[in-house]
Design a protein that fits this description.
By secondary structure, the chain is α/β, with parallel strands linked by helices. The protein contains 28 helices and 18 strands. An eight-stranded mixed β-sheet has the order 13-12-11-14-15-16-17-18, with helices on both faces. The protein has a six-stranded mixed β-sheet with strand order 1-2-3-5-7-10, with helices on both faces.
């Protein structure tokens, strides 16, 4: 990636006027170049809505009459070319209405593709979904440094629906195109250039020259040679078979129909662009009506709802982290990457060095440019002398999970923190009620519970207690959103929300091992349900020592108990067999790997024993007011644990299934009171 001082955005100060009769487009004509600037009204992000396409249709007719030397499509938004289709429009769109809307959209993009003069899309920043399809309908694509392009529709249980399946597989190596669509991953600037998605990659200051080159025919291309080689059905079938096999391992057809519909679409129709476009519309419409897509679209809105909980200024520019372990180091690295000035302390110098190395790896994984990575590292300051304590707007305590240790830290902060600074604890198992008396100012003390690894797990629980001020909680939620995480507002209680609901999953599995169940069968049954990790594997991942502590702490304050911990588990921990971090736990990592493939024919009684106690715990959390509503619980479990998103979350799953209380009663008769349905089921509705 070119290291330049230019901002990696278009000329956002364009003074082009709104196009006549358009709310979402600006029009500019100069020296034979007609530029249409996409500038969706009343939002900072472009989305491809029905109104955007309708206005573009009219502008293309006008452009055809004007006959410019070149038509350029750009975005006036500094954040990117476009974030995809308008998902709000999907919520109630079904059947014939969806099909008619897709046909209209295809007609507009086909009109763009057929214009009798060169067309160029200049793409920067986020260019996804429908916005990417708009760019693909142009003759050429010029990428500005830092651009990322992709089709994330698979994450909504869909595939591209505005011609993207056809145009991308004809533009570049079809197998590479299919991989992009099947995984939902983005192609970042240099990768997009090497694949042939963009014809040129330039800094903003060279965009005009690149447009001139495209207009003069110096960027013309003949399409993908590999696409020609795979024009026969037989050749595509070989590649499609491999794709299905790989997709089945990651996303089984019975739960995720979209990848397989996409593979079928390309295999059956990839040799004929017109047929494939028609089939794309049919396939997309069928998928949109599926339960999987509707649940995944709901998950999209759950994400938006969590984000909305943090919409305000946080007043936090300097963050100080106490504790440079794996969690504290990730929090510090992530906050610095998101623009905060961060100081981090530890009682030992070694973890501070590890924090910088960890941050460097995170920034590489997140595709930061050399300049942006350097700037983030400049904001991340090891602070062995603890100078940041007195200067920070927010102090995040990420010390050991021991009350006495945390109380000692808080005592040192009492006369050190700025008067308006906030102290947040990252505790995952200790009650805030037990810590608040030691805090310098109870009103400006709360929980900020991140999930490991912070760079991958989007959820943060913002934990309140009786003495926390509303301003403190609002600022912490805003801080969470400001560092591109999702705040779930919860109240103090055993395990808060996520750990309270997740704990029965692991603890029941451990008890089932004690009964003689096979660990691999348990894990594979959970994977078949759609969990991202089996409970036995998860217990090893978390650490058996932590599981023991979580079980102990939860048993103190719950109406419905979790499974008892077998004596052999304590003995394992005492012998140092604490899980993956020790190389041995419930699995021996020197000689066996936990299963990654779901069971073909899982035992549904095993699944019910693992999953339904989580649903029961979710109802208890809702009844006790630990979470404000069912949507928050479902969202927190999906974004905090990866809980089978295509099922919509534990409460949505229970709502659809309907028989959960009855099955819990039968399990209680057989296995004990930990399965007794919570009283809150009567009010769930």
């Amino acid at each position: 990636m070119t290291d330049v001082l230019d901002e990696i955005t278009p000329d956002e100060s364009t003074k082009a006027p709104k196009a006549p009769g358009a709310l979402n487009w600006r029009r500019e004509e100069q020296n034979g170049t007609l530029t249409l600037w996409l500038d969706c009204a009343d939002t900072g992000t472009n989305v491809i809505s029905e109104a955007v396409l309708r206005e573009l249709d009219t502008l293309l007719d006008d452009g055809k009459q004007a006959r410019p030397d070149v038509l350029v499509i750009r975005s006036a938004k500094p954040g990117g070319f476009g974030a995809g289709a308008d998902i709000d429009g999907f919520e109630n769109l079904r059947g014939k209405d969806a099909k008619a809307m897709l046909h209209q959209g295809h007609a507009v993009l086909d009109k763009l593709a057929a214009l009798p003069f060169p067309t160029v899309a200049v793409v920067h920043g986020t260019t996804l979904g429908g916005a990417f399809e708009l760019a693909l309908a142009c003759d050429h694509r010029i990428g500005v440094d830092g651009v990322k392009l992709g089709f994330p529709e698979i994450q909504l249980g869909l595939h591209p629906g505005l011609g993207g399946t056809v145009r991308l597989t004809n533009l570049i190596d079809p197998v590479e195109a299919m991989q992009l669509m099947l995984t939902g991953r983005s192609a970042y600037d240099r990768r997009a250039k090497s694949l042939g998605i963009i014809d040129a990659l330039v800094p903003e200051r060279h965009v005009a020259a690149a447009i001139a080159a495209a207009a003069s025919g110096k960027m013309d291309h003949d399409g993908s040679l590999r696409a020609s080689a795979l024009r026969t059905r037989a050749a595509r079938s070989l590649a499609a078979t491999r794709m299905r096999s790989e997709s089945e391992k990651k996303a089984p057809r019975r739960h995720f129909p979209a990848p397989f519909a996409l593979i079928d679409l390309w295999e059956d129709h990839g040799g004929d662009a017109d047929d494939m476009q028609t089939a794309e519309i049919e396939s997309f419409t069928t998928l949109l009506d599926s339960t999987t897509a509707q649940n995944l679209i709901r998950v999209f809105f759950l994400r938006q709802r969590l984000k909305a909980a943090g919409k305000r200024e946080d007043g936090i520019s300097h963050v100080h982290v106490i504790g440079a372990g794996a969690m504290g180091g990730e929090i510090a690295a992530w906050a610095a990457m998101q623009g905060k000035r961060v100081t981090i302390e530890d009682v030992d110098l070694t973890p501070l060095g590890k924090t910088i190395r960890r941050a460097t790896r995170i920034y590489e994984r997140k595709h930061l440019s050399g300049i942006k990575s350097r700037d983030a590292l400049d904001r991340l300051i090891p602070d062995p002398d603890r100078l940041g304590r007195a200067r920070a707007d927010l102090i995040i305590e990420a010390g050991p999970e021991k009350t006495a240790v945390k109380e000692a830290i808080y005592a040192e902060l009492t006369n050190t923190m700025k008067p308006d600074a906030i102290l947040a604890t990252n505790t995952s198992s200790l009650s805030l009620a037990a810590l608040v008396d030691a805090a310098p100012d109870p009103a400006r003390f709360a929980g900020l519970h991140f999930f490991n690894p912070v760079s991958s797990m989007p959820l943060v629980e913002v934990v309140s207690h009786d003495l926390a001020s509303q301003d403190t909680l609002d600022r912490l939620a805003a801080f969470t959103t400001g560092i591109d995480r999702l705040p779930a507002r919860v109240t103090d209680g055993p395990g808060f929300l996520v750990n309270r609901v997740l704990a029965p999953y692991m603890m029941e599995a451990i008890l089932m091992l004690d009964e003689g169940h096979d660990k691999v069968a348990i894990d594979r049954a959970a994977l078949a349900f759609g969990m991202p990790m089996g409970p036995v594997t998860l217990a090893d991942q978390v650490g058996l020592d932590i599981c023991l502590e979580v079980g102990r702490s939860l048993r103190k304050g719950l109406d419905t108990p979790v499974a008892e911990t077998p004596d052999w588990l304590r003995e394992k921990v005492e012998n140092g067999e604490t899980g993956k971090k020790a190389g041995k736990g419930l699995y021996d990592y020197d000689s066996e790997d936990p299963p990654k493939e779901p069971a073909d024919d899982p035992d549904h009684q095993v699944i019910d024993r693992l999953i339904l106690p989580m649903c029961n715990a979710a109802v208890e959390v809702l009844r006790k007011g630990v979470a404000p509503d069912a949507d928050t619980i479902d969202a927190a479990m999906i974004f905090g644990t990866g809980w089978a998103p295509f099922r919509g979350g534990p409460l949505q799953y229970a709502k659809v299934r309907r028989d959960v209380p009855d099955v819990l009663r039968r399990l209680a008769e057989k296995h004990g009171p930990r399965f007794e349905p919570d009283p809150g089921w009567n009010d769930l509705g």
